[in-house]
Design goal:
There is one protein chain. This protein has nine helices and ten strands. It has helices at 18-32, 51-86, 100-105, 120-160, 195-201, 235-244, 256-311, 329-338, 343-346, and strands at 4-11, 38-40, 94-95, 98-99, 183-191, 215-219, 223-231, 248-250, 317-322, 369-374. A hairpin with a 3-residue loop joins strand 6 (215-219) and strand 7 (223-231). The longest helix is centred in the C-terminal third of the chain and has 56 residues, at 256-311. The radius of gyration is 35 Å and the shape is rod-shaped.
């Protein structure tokens, strides 16, 4: 599937027709650039309005196109990320059940959604409002999903970090902790290379430490986790003395209800993440189709309005979609220019006249209407 298309229009000169021009274009492409896909881009007779309204609309078309294209790509990237995270096999995106490229190359105007008798500005503004609403909805949904992911990542970091920072609840059992009126058990995080130092010194760090009360519970690449039991009144003093020896006393209070609550919270967050991810993915599939459909109708309005400004009234032009390869672009440009024989196009061929050649934001001047649609 091509990902880069040209939407273009050619003026239909006096004494000829769109059908004969189409045949000439097909013949030229097949002979000189046979590997370039070529399609008709069927645009109905839209409401022209006044020249002033068309000029005013033309000023906004490029900026609006960039916005709509940006939202389309944003949703597409979100789909790709969600499919990757979910392990879903990436599928071809569709618009109204039709593959995206086919929707473009076989475009049919939706009269029910966009009445052709509506002013062009009203149609463009309606599309812009719809896309802006979808973008806002996307931001809200992504933020909600991201918040749950952030919470899970925080928990994951606590569980995956070193003993100096990670959650200790899964490593400490009720029988490891002694808590009475006079006694308490502390948890010490000791650098791996200092374990012998800890075992030989913890009993003498302060006066009221229970002899041989230290037990190693866990060890990672950097630290070892030990318990130590002492008189409660001596706990603060022990913390100070331990810190002086580079032993870290972790604050920890075992509570079975708290442990169960954390477990349930984790399970709920995982379920919420899965639910929000699936919901967001389905929403993105649907919304991408809506955005792309609106974008193609916008492109039709853009071709129509710029063709009127370029070729004049009454509307008499052939609109097409091409997908030339990079190596064929120059040849296809030459073919299109060669078919611009009307007096309206002669002006655009002047080497010194480039001021209006960039209708719709194209940086290059051509004697015909042309702009690029990037699907990705």
């Amino acid at each position: 599937m091509a990902t880069r298309y040209w939407v273009a229009s050619l003026p239909v000169g006096q004494g000829t027709s769109a059908s004969s021009l189409w045949s000439r274009l097909q013949e030229s492409i097949s002979k000189q650039s046979f590997d370039t896909p070529l399609y008709r881009f069927n645009i109905p007779n839209l409401r022209v309005g006044t020249l002033d309204s068309l000029l005013s609309l033309s000023d906004d078309l490029s900026k609006a196109n960039s916005f709509i294209e940006g939202v389309s790509h944003k949703i597409r990237r979100q789909i790709e990320e969600l499919e990757r995270v979910s392990g879903v096999v990436s599928s071809s995106l569709t618009v109204d059940g039709v593959p995206v490229d086919s929707y473009l190359t076989r475009f049919v105007w939706d009269e029910a959604k966009y009445p052709t008798m509506s002013p062009l500005k009203e149609t463009v503004d309606g599309i812009h409002v719809q896309i802006a609403r979808i973008e806002d909805d996307l931001k809200v949904r992504v933020a909600e999903y991201g918040n749950v992911r952030s919470q899970l990542n925080t928990i994951s970091r606590k569980q995956a970090g070193s003993l100096a920072v990670r959650d200790l609840s899964n490593m400490v059992k009720p029988q490891d902790i002694i808590t009475t009126e006079h006694l308490t058990t502390l948890l010490a995080v000791v650098p791996s290379y200092s374990q012998k130092d800890w075992l030989s010194s913890y009993e003498t760090l302060t006066t009221f430490v229970v002899p041989r009360s230290s037990k190693k519970l866990h060890e990672d690449n950097e630290y070892a986790l030990f318990t130590v039991t002492l008189f409660s009144r001596d706990a603060d003093n022990f913390r100070t003395k331990a810190r002086e020896r580079s032993f870290q006393i972790r604050d920890f209070e075992y509570n079975s209800e708290t442990q169960e609550s954390r477990k349930q919270e984790l399970e709920k967050l995982m379920q919420d993440q899965e639910s929000l991810r699936n919901s967001l993915l389905q929403w993105c599939y649907t919304s991408y189709g809506e955005v792309f459909s609106s974008w193609m109708h916008f492109c039709a309005v853009r071709v129509f309005s710029e063709s009127i400004l370029r070729y004049g009234l009454p509307p008499s032009f052939l609109s097409v979609v091409l997908a030339p390869s990079l190596k064929s672009e120059k040849k296809v440009r030459s073919i299109l220019e060669g078919l611009c024989t009307s007096s309206n196009s002669t002006y655009w061929k002047g080497e010194d006249e480039v001021g209006m050649g960039g209708f719709g934001g194209d940086s290059d001047a051509h004697p015909y209407v042309s702009f690029t649609v990037n699907l990705v």
